[in-house]
């Protein structure tokens, strides 16, 4: 572990060494100085700027600490802040840029941080770490940046000119933490400047659900067009700015009812099951104190139910997610604790917390929240699949937990949603067009920290649990989910930077009357060619995905019956359905619930609901998995795991060299190559075109050289020597043996 001053002028190096010796800052093992004998002047590294990107401030002679192999060394360079990102440019580019890295983002470099990705900024004053915000009276000697993608950057400013330190620190704090206006986001600058250079992926067939045709197609695909209809009553957002321009409602429901309370109290269709049951969502009516208005709302809801609760809408179960499920505050509090486990400043901190890892993990409650979300989705799946019930999800605005649960249900029940195009279309339908407030929930404008809640990240974590447990059922990989979570903070895509379709459409115009007629062309995140080269994109596609076999007409009839029998899991004895409408005794209570008053369970007792769930759950897991049918996750304690690739990818000590799932995947892909080669020989296709899944193995060969957190973790170029503090282990071992150790640490590097 030797400190490295790379590519510096010899005079600078000498001054630095003298200064460090005076301050007793020499790193263990001495200091290694690399200079270029042929060229002693500093090498200027070019800053790559996107169209419309402008440099705001910069500082030179900044030392970036690089955490690697449980020791730190540093690289000098420039720290630059633009209106898009914070970038560090090392004086020796080869020291920072790993040529062996095969998975590079074309927009964000290894040492780039988008302004929206900055979570917290800390300064070190006389070895004390403090949070930085607002105007500073004193400037730190060390800058630590915690990112929302869980990267940690540390910059030493001790050798930087005082004026440059003030400028760069003040600039970073202001441009990452000060409240912003929507029109001042880099998204609009980029869209204006890059309009003529925008290239879209012709293979991207994601359904955007921004037209009536898209909704009609989805109705036809799910066979929901017999009971539901797509409407354009909100075209131009004249009825409600919260709803999309087009959506689907039950066929018997008059369109004029949508206008009554601006879309509140209206059951909106999400998805239809093969057996005719459907998943719907509804935003609750606003709370009112006036008795007259309450009576009007009650009368309105009563008419809605009389319209809906008749054949073929006999059986409806209401799930009130606002009062009988998670709160947004619970989610935010849990994630705030959870993420601290991975924002590690140095190796010592990592090993200090390692001894209490499981207790800290449990106390965060993040995994328990994931379990509760998956369990709720299974309960709704059981109602639709086993009991042929329609399910109505209820939430205040139907834009947070409704998006989460409805998406998970469709992912479990609809194999189309487990393809990449299907999954992207699902997010467009339920999240983007469903009105999830990405701008507020991700706090992109820094206007209200209380509104920031990682609901979409919670959804991706739930999806990862399914992908991890049933890999052959998904066309996409966990790497795809990880880069999708990273894309939340890249402000060149419009997908995750608006609160509603109305907000996006009204802000796509240009500033200035002379150009206002032509709207801006905003990129969508689903065009992966913007971020990754074709070779890197192969890591987003699962080579082990089991595609649905294509059947001829003679086979389809019999297979359809068998497929539906397998989906319909039998229960011991199902209750007879009510003969008319919804449960008559509960109608008044349901109306009160929709008006914002908490009540007890609407249907069944909790014991009966639990029994039905357990029988359904156990019955499914006792049978072979049909990867193109119903798919349920395991939710028992040890089955809910930490999404290691996303949360641990920047921590060298957490990596397994040549091990982990990447090693298993590499062996499987090698076997696939052998099978394919043998098949080609059998079929005498010596020069046949390779199948798409044959492209991926080349990236995973020599798995012994890869990390378990591939493709994000850099390849380790030094031997790994984890250092464990004895202080945390004394209670577990023999104190007499531990007392014999002369040093504070036990070096296990040679074990």
Explained architecture:
It is found in: Cytoplasm, Myofibril, Sarcomere; Sarcoplasmic reticulum. Belongs to the protein-tyrosine phosphatase family. Non-receptor class myotubularin subfamily. Keywords: Cytoplasm, Sarcoplasmic reticulum. The chain is an alpha+beta fold and 751 residues long. It has an eight-stranded antiparallel sheet with strand order 6-5-4-3-10-9-7-8. A four-stranded mixed sheet has the order 13-14-16-15, with helices on both faces. It has a two-stranded parallel sheet with strand order 1-2. A hairpin with a 2-residue loop joins strand 7 and strand 8. Helix 8 packs antiparallel against helix 10, helix 12 runs antiparallel to helix 13 and helix 12 packs parallel to helix 15. The radius of gyration is 29 Å and the shape is globular. 37% of the residues are buried. The N terminus and C terminus are likely disordered.
Report the biggest beta sheet as strand number plus sense, adding barrel if it closes: 8 strands, antiparallel
Strand content: 5-15%
Task: Assign the structural class, choosing from mainly alpha, mainly beta, alpha/beta, alpha+beta, or little secondary structure.
Answer: alpha+beta
Instruction: Bin the helical content.
Output: 25-40%
Q: What strand order characterises the main sheet?
A: 6-5-4-3-10-9-7-8
**Mean residue pLDDT:** 80
Quickly count the helices.
Answer: 24
Distance between the termini: 18 Å
The rounded Rg comes to 29 Å
Overall 3D shape: globular
Count all strands and give the number: 18
Low-confidence stretches: 1-42, 511-515, 556-606, 690-697, 715-751
Subcellular location: Cytoplasm, Myofibril, Sarcomere; Sarcoplasmic reticulum
Keywords: Cytoplasm, Sarcoplasmic reticulum
GO cellular component, one term: membrane
Domain Myotubularin phosphatase: 209-647
């Amino acid at each position: 572990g030797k400190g490295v001053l790379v590519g510096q002028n010899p005079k600078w190096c000498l001054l630095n060494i003298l200064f460090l010796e005076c301050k007793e800052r020499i790193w263990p093992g001495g200091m290694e100085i690399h200079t270029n004998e042929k060229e002693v002047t500093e090498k200027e590294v070019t800053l790559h700027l996107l169209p419309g990107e402008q440099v705001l401030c910069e500082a030179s002679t900044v030392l970036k600490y690089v955490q690697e192999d449980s020791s730190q060394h540093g690289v000098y360079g420039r720290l630059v802040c633009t209106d898009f990102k914070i970038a560090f440019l090392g004086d020796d580019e080869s020291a920072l840029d790993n040529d062996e890295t095969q998975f590079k983002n074309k927009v964000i470099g290894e040492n780039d941080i988008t302004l929206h990705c900055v979570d917290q900024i800390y300064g070190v004053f006389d070895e004390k770490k403090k949070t930085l915000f607002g105007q500073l009276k004193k400037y730190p000697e060390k800058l630590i940046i915690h990112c929302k993608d869980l990267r940690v950057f540390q910059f030493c400013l001790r050798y930087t000119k005082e004026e440059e330190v003030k400028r760069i620190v003040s600039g970073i704090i202001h441009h990452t933490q000060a409240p912003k206006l929507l029109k001042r986001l880099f998204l609009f600058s980029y869209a204006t400047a890059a309009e003529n250079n925008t290239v879209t992926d012709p293979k991207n067939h994601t359904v955007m659900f921004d037209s009536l045709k898209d909704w009609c197609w989805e109705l036809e695909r799910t066979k929901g067009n017999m009971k539901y209809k797509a409407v354009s009553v909100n075209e131009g957002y004249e009825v409600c700015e919260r709803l999309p321009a087009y959506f689907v409602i039950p066929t018997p429901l008059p369109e004029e009812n949508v206008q009554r309370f601006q879309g509140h109290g209206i059951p909106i269709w999400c998805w239809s099951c093969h057996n005719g049951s459907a998943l719907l969502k509804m935003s609750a009516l606003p709370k009112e104190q006036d008795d007259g208005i309450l009576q009007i709302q009650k009368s309105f809801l009563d008419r809605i139910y009389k319209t809906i609760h008749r054949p073929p809408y006999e059986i409806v179960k209401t799930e009130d997610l606002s009062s009988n499920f998670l709160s947004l505050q619970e989610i935010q509090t849990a994630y705030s604790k959870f993420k601290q486990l991975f924002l590690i400043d140095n190796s010592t901190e990592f090993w200090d917390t390692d001894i209490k890892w499981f207790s800290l993990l449990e106390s965060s409650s993040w995994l328990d929240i994931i379990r509760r979300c998956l369990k709720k989705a299974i309960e709704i799946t059981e109602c639709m699949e086993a009991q042929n019930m329609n399910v109505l999800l209820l939430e205040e605005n139907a834009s947070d937990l409704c998006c989460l649960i409805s998406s998970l249900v469709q992912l479990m029940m609809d194999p189309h949603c487990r393809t990449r195009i299907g999954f992207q279309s699902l997010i467009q339908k339920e999240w983007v067009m469903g009105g999830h407030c990405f701008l507020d929930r991700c706090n992109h404008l820094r206007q209200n920290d209380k509104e920031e809640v990682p609901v979409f990240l919670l959804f991706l974590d739930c999806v990862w649990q399914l992908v991890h447990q049933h890999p052959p059922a998904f066309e996409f990989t966990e790497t795809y989910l990880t880069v999708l979570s990273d894309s939340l903070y890249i402000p060149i895509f419009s997908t995750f930077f608006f609160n509603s379709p109305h907000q996006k459409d009204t802000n796509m115009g240009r500033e200035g009357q002379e150009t206002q007629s032509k709207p801006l062309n905003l990129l969508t995140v689903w065009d992966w060619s913007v971020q990754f080269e074709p070779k890197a994109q192969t890591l987003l596609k699962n080579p082990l995905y089991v595609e649905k076999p294509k059947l001829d007409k003679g086979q389809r009839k019999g297979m359809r019956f068998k497929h539906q029998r397998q989906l319909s899991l039998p229960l011991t004895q199902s209750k007879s359905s009510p003969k008319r409408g919804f449960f008559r005794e509960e109608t008044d209570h349901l109306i009160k619930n929709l008006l914002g008053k908490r009540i007890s369970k609407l249907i069944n007792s909790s014991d009966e609901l639990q029994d039905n769930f357990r029988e359904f759950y156990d019955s499914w897991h006792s049978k072979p998995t049909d990867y193109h049918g119903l798919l349920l996750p395991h939710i028992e304690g040890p089955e809910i795991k930490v999404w290691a690739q996303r949360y641990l990818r920047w921590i060298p000590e957490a990596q397994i060299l040549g091990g982990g799932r990447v090693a298993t995947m590499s062996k499987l892909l090698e076997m696939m190559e052998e099978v394919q080669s043998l098949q080609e020989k059998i079929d005498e296709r010596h020069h046949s075109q390779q199948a798409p899944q044959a492209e991926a193995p080349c990236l995973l060969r020599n798995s012994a050289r890869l990390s378990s957190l591939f493709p994000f973790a850099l390849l380790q170029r030094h031997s790994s020597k984890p250092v464990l503090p004895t202080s945390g282990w004394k209670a577990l071992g023999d104190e007499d043996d531990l007392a014999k150790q002369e040093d504070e640490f036990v070096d296990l590097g040679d074990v």
